[in-house]
Amino acid sequence: MLFAQPVFVYKWPMHIDILPGPLEAVQPIILASGSPRRRDMLESLGIDFEIQIFPGEEPEPMLGEDPDGYARRASLAKAEAVAKQHPEAIVIGSDTIVVLGNEIMGKPSGPNEAMLMLSKLVGNTHRVISGCAVFLPGGEPKVFSVSTEVTMGPQPLEMLFAYVATNEPMDKAGAYAIQGRGGFLVESIRGSYNNVVGLPLAELVEILVYCGVVVPRQG
Known about the structure:
Elements: E1 9-12, E2 23-25, E3 29-31, H1 36-43, E4 49-52, H2 67-85, E5 90-100, E6 103-105, H3 111-121, E7 125-135, E8 142-152, H4 157-164, E9 186-190, H5 193-197, H6 201-210, E10 214-216
Parallel strand pairs: 3-4, 3-5
Antiparallel strand pairs: 1-4, 2-10, 5-6, 5-7, 7-8, 8-9
């Protein structure tokens, strides 16, 4: 299978004008995602990493597929092409979905679908599932998923229309961003906040430390 050239390649160094983070990478790390939220969370650790994205459609859920399994499969697909091009590096891929009952919600195709998603979510509790795949040189990828319950209070349609008009929902699973303008929609969460933002950071760090990819920063 031939792979296209990356959309962009970017080295994301720890800035010298801020205090260093708690960890440092001892192996090359590539984040296979263009999400600014995932980039910021990984940067908060203080590690150096690159961002590389290969073009391609995200896989669609298969009929009857378990949502956790789908999130893991999608994260694996995002990272696999990058890992094939860079077998010497640690490659991290992640995918986040919103699940209400048995309905899997990805990113809305436009304002109308965003309104439809939000009108279903408000007044209910849904799950946010992030799948994560970590490719290690010479080994099998470590793939896992984390689920967080999110409860939204009821909202009048005018509030939802006003939020959709900000355009923030357009590239967010479930059509909202808990860390952005959509935070007012969320009454409570049960589980990881970072997972709702888009990356199960605690679980990812545990794997990276266990595998010797990152270590506590000295001094």
